[in-house]
């Protein structure tokens, strides 16, 4: 479906731009003009990861005549190989990066990173996704047995519990160091992808845009207000994928994308670009790390224009790297 390809392309660029904007959010003076510009960009892009989860749900939860062994064999090739290869690669990359800044590479605790599901900051998503894939066939059976209204209530209650957990985790610092239960919090997004693919409810676009903009303002304002009362780490609760502002923001975005079912340029171009999404997700931190090493970041320049420009450059270079690697045996890891 065209809108899903569009959603992948838009979401992966949003991921890259979010990571570019995160640098000044974390390193600029809280409340400065630089920080506020980055905060607004960051707040406006927080739907990117939920979009990927919803697309996965929209695709994987469709009824299919397929045995469990066949289902798992196909998805293992798609997810497990990239997870294993890039986990090993980024553990080595982290050691090299640590040494490049004059630190002791042995300080990188491999076991601690693996047990936390974060060999590198962005790989947590693959660790979470593996478990969603693991339980997807059982969610399929549940959906087939549910009336639509019951499924809607499951999604709403799931979001309520996930949002409460996200708030308590941030406020009380009770997060687990293990990654095995992460997928439980993303089940509502997974199911929502299926619901939105099939729902017939048509919400006027002006209301969706109004909801989106309201959530962005609430996110940016919430981060600042909470950070000023406590600290930036606590304030970033509003950036959480399951915060009370990001959940409705993500729902608005995917509905807008679903209703705009057109190719970005041509169908072939959109399809090709969409297929490179995972590779860009996996490789773009390398491009950013090299740029940061040479002091090229959104603080060095005016963030109002440097964030989108650096994002476009990072995305373009990452696309080039992925396209090149597609011609090598590493294509199976992308």
Automatic annotation (TrEMBL):
Compartments, record wording: Cell membrane
Residue ranges crossing the lipid bilayer per the database entry: 43-63, 75-93, 121-139, 151-169, 175-195, 207-226, 238-257, 278-294, 306-325
Domain Acyltransferase intervals: 2-321
Chief localization: membrane
The entry's keywords: Acyltransferase, Cell membrane, Membrane, Transferase, Transmembrane, Transmembrane helix
GO molecular function: acyltransferase activity
Family matches, as InterPro entries: Acyl_transf_3_dom
Membrane topology: Multi-pass membrane protein
Recorded family membership: Belongs to the acyltransferase 3 family.
Name used for this protein in its record: Acyltransferase family protein
